[in-house]
Automatic annotation (TrEMBL):
<feature type="domain" description="Gnk2-homologous">
    <location>
        <begin position="135"/>
        <end position="240"/>
    </location>
</feature>
<dbReference type="InterPro" id="IPR017441">
    <property type="entry name" value="Protein_kinase_ATP_BS"/>
</dbReference>
<protein>
    <recommendedName>
        <fullName>Cysteine-rich receptor-like protein kinase 2</fullName>
    </recommendedName>
</protein>
<keyword id="KW-0325">Glycoprotein</keyword>
<feature type="domain" description="Gnk2-homologous">
    <location>
        <begin position="30"/>
        <end position="131"/>
    </location>
</feature>
<dbReference type="InterPro" id="IPR008271">
    <property type="entry name" value="Ser/Thr_kinase_AS"/>
</dbReference>
<dbReference type="GO" id="GO:0016020">
    <property type="term" value="C:membrane"/>
</dbReference>
<dbReference type="InterPro" id="IPR038408">
    <property type="entry name" value="GNK2_sf"/>
</dbReference>
<keyword id="KW-0812">Transmembrane</keyword>
<dbReference type="InterPro" id="IPR011009">
    <property type="entry name" value="Kinase-like_dom_sf"/>
</dbReference>
<dbReference type="GO" id="GO:0005524">
    <property type="term" value="F:ATP binding"/>
</dbReference>
<keyword id="KW-0723">Serine/threonine-protein kinase</keyword>
<feature type="binding site">
    <location>
        <position position="338"/>
    </location>
    <ligand>
        <name>ATP</name>
    </ligand>
</feature>
<dbReference type="Pfam" id="PF01657">
    <property type="entry name" value="Stress-antifung"/>
</dbReference>
<keyword id="KW-1133">Transmembrane helix</keyword>
<dbReference type="InterPro" id="IPR052059">
    <property type="entry name" value="CR_Ser/Thr_kinase"/>
</dbReference>
<keyword id="KW-0675">Receptor</keyword>
Length: 626
């Protein structure tokens, strides 16, 4: 019976997938037109975040039924009010997709206390006060296209807009669409007008009237959008409107109802209380992949239970991409729950990328992904729980450093190298981690190294160009070519690995960037000691080699310093690959080549650096409940 039940559910899924792909011809129009964040900070972040999440959970539920929703949580200065609405021509499925995009982007306004986002298919706004009846404000704005329309077009647009503005306030959802076709496709006109459902009819009329007045400023452009506090108005000479539901085609109607029914079945079966909040990129491939991987999918409620509602007491720490909590599943398995929801840079697309990457890799030196939850109000990753925290808690601590003798440290050094070599050299997905550092090396119960935080990882296909747009990473570990030019290759990780080797040997963190003046930088010290033949001065006191008896160990440690210096050479091509580094460690490559100078940063570059690295600064220090 069980087998049958399982197969039946698989069958339903397949049918749903096929129907979704085949029959949903709609476009969720997830293109973002404008995000405007409030200027004021939230009153108390620790209260704001859970309130926000609850707010969105509530709005999500309404969106699934009504394609719009409002809600509020909290009291006084900690209140949150939220409104989301899809424009009238979106199907329910498309609305969910558009809302999901808005829901993922708007939190980037945090730590400010709210904001608004206009997409081409939907609108969303949050505030700390009830704004549901507002329909005009200083933020009202227009966005015009570049191309010029013809004279004929302008006249027909004016007429169509005026019709839409007249009809929308009287229609059931405050929505109107108009189109005027012309012999020349360029002169056809398409118009959409939509007010938020929370307004009364006269407010809707006033909003659209003023939107009409401002959108005229776009003339003679062939495209215009008015983004007003209580409404959205758009015209274009390209047909952006979704096809109208065809009422008289019974066959199609039946198939749509069937699709809808099955979608509901699927939603009930799989996600029950949750929403498609992160089901972003609008294309069905992602939906497919997501469903395909549902064996890793956790219900949001399970995670909430496991972490005791993200209890502060269960907090393990904070990474660049979210807060990590310890959790306990009903089967007593311990997990680490990474809550990604309020991050400036982490969009749902990245989330899928991350899930796909992490679930496709499997290596003893990589932290294992247990699952994810992306259908609830937040994006969450679930990892195996590692009890002994991260390497930085040991090596940079005079007392705990004693728990890692040289033998253990050496195993960790080899383990990290093997994990990285696997990431770099696995055929399916060349992966560059981009943020190798002591804090991202976790230790299991036997103190084996496991590389964590693929938050910055991107799948790297062979033929993509290697210039990254947004620099991410941690300053002291970042390769010069990456800082200065955004040039990304595996050698960026090799550089970070080199820094890490020097840190593990010395027990000292490498701070900042090495400049010509600065002699206190770890790489400078290591390089000087290497040249003087006094590498022993770099050794961590905790390595207990003071009695000088163990020359074999000393040789081994010096060799690691040497390899570290090879890894941090200025010219990326001179740095070894990770598999070469492994061979160097195991003495398969012997003698070692001489390292060239490690890089200095000229002061001019440093200025560029500081300007560029404002991105990671934001992403690392922001949104953390204080
Ligand atoms: C959702 O929000 C609406 C409007 O604020 C409120 O009436 C309703 O009780 C909320 N539901 C839940 C479950 O919080
Ligand atoms: C909203 O937040 C701002 C800034 O924190 C505060 O000054 C204002 O009083 C808050 N409004 C309400 C209605 O609580
Ligand atoms: C977004 O809208 C605000 C006003 O609400 C305006 O000041 C800003 O320039 C707009 N941004 C873009 C990119 O259009
Ligand atoms: C599901 O995943 C498997 C393996 O990852 C893949 O071979 C298959 O094509 C996927 N199926 C769909 C429908 O995406
Ligand atoms: C590592 O974790 C294990 C299991 O929890 C524990 O017994 C051990 O004391 C920990 N070791 C260190 C050095 O913290
Ligand atoms: C001295 O070296 C021996 C042999 O390696 C080692 O067992 C011992 O712990 C060292 N003593 C100290 C005080 O470091
Ligand atoms: C970095 O930003 C500062 C302040 O905006 C500016 O004065 C400086 O010229 C910038 N440096 C570079 C190299 O662009």
């Amino acid at each position: 019976m069980r087998g049958f039940a399982v197969r039946w559910s698989v069958l339903i899924r397949l049918i749903v997938i096929l129907l979704l792909v085949d029959t949903s011809q709609g476009d969720p129009r997830t293109h973002i037109i404008n995000v405007t964040c409030n200027q004021q900070l939230s009153n108390n972040a620790a209260i704001y975040i859970p309130n926000f999440v609850q707010l969105m959970a509530n709005v999500s539920r309404q969106i699934q039924t009504f394609k719009s929703g409002t809600s509020s949580t909290g009291t006084g200065p900690d209140s949150s009010y939220g409104l989301a609405e899809c424009y009238g021509d979106l199907s329910t499925e498309d609305c969910i997709l558009c809302y999901a995009e808005a829901r993922t982007i708007l939190p980037s306004c945090f730590p400010n206390n709210g904001g608004r986002i206009f997409l081409d298919g939907c609108f969303m706004r949050t505030q700390n006060y009830s704004f549901f009846e507002e329909y005009a404000g200083a933020e009202d704005t227009v966005v015009c296209g570049n191309r010029k329309g013809s004279r004929v077009f302008r006249d027909s647009v004016r007429q169509a807009i005026s019709d839409a503005v007249r009809d929308a306030p009287r229609s059931i959802n405050y929505f109107a669409r108009k189109q005027a076709l012309s012999d020349s496709a360029d002169d056809s006109t398409y118009v959409l007008a939509d007010c938020w459902n929370t307004l009364d009819e006269s407010s809707c009329t006033e909003c659209l009237d003023s939107a009409f007045a401002s959108i005229l400023k776009c003339f003679p452009s062939s495209e215009g959008r008015a983004l007003h506090t209580g409404c959205f108005l758009r015209y274009s000479n390209t047909n952006f409107l979704n096809p109208e539901p065809t009422g008289n085609n019974n066959g199609e109607k039946v198939s749509r109802v069937f699709t809808y029914f099955l979608t509901i079945l699927l939603v009930m079966e799989d996600v029950r209380h949750s929403t498609f909040s992160n089901l972003i990129g609008s294309n069905d491939i992602k939906l497919l992949n997501m469903l395909n991987r549902s064996s890793l999918n956790f219900k949001y409620s399970t995670i909430v239970k496991a972490t005791n509602a993200f209890d502060e007491a269960n907090k393990l720490g904070q990474g660049g991409f979210g807060t990590v909590y310890k959790g306990l599943l009903p089967n007593h398995r311990e997990i680490a729950v990474k809550r990604l929801f309020l991050n400036q840079r982490h969009r749902a697309g990245d989330f899928y990328n991350e899930v796909n990457i992490i679930s496709s890799v499997d290596h003893k030196n990589l932290v294992k992904l247990v699952g994810f939850s992306c259908l609830g109000p937040e994006s969450i990753l679930i990892y195996e729980y590692l009890p002994n925290r991260s390497l930085n808690h040991f090596i940079f601590d005079a007392v705990r450093g004693k728990e890692l003798n040289w033998g253990k440290r050496y195993d960790i050094i080899v383990g990290i190298a093997e994990g990285l070599a696997y990431l770099h050299e696995n055929n399916k997905n060349r992966i560059i981690h981009r943020d190798i550092k002591a804090a991202n090396i976790l230790l299991d119960s036997r103190l084996n190294a496991k590389i964590a935080d693929f938050g910055l990882a991107r799948s790297f296909k062979q033929d993509k160009n290697h210039i990254s747009t947004g620099i991410a990473g941690t300053l002291g570990y970042m390769a010069p070519e990456y800082i200065a030019y955004g040039k990304l290759s595996e050698k960026v990780d090799v550089y970070s690995y080199g820094v890490l080797l020097l840190e593990i040997v010395s027990g000292m963190p490498n701070r900042g960037i090495r400049t010509s003046e600065d002699t206190s930088n770890l790489i400078s010290i290591a390089w000087e000691n290497f040249k003087q033949g006094s590498m022993e001065e770099l050794f961590d006191q905790n390595l207990m080699l003071n009695n000088g008896t163990n020359s074999k160990l000393k040789k081994e440690i010096e060799r690691v310093i040497h390899i570290g210096l090879l890894c941090v050479q200025e010219v990326a091509s001179l740095r070894p690959t990770m598999s070469m580094a492994i061979q160097m460690l195991s003495k398969n490559i012997d003698p070692l080549p001489s390292p060239a100078n490690p890089p200095y940063m000229p002061d001019s570059t440093i200025n560029t650096v500081n300007n560029h690295t404002s991105v990671p600064t934001v992403s690392y220090s922001s949104f953390i409940p204080r």
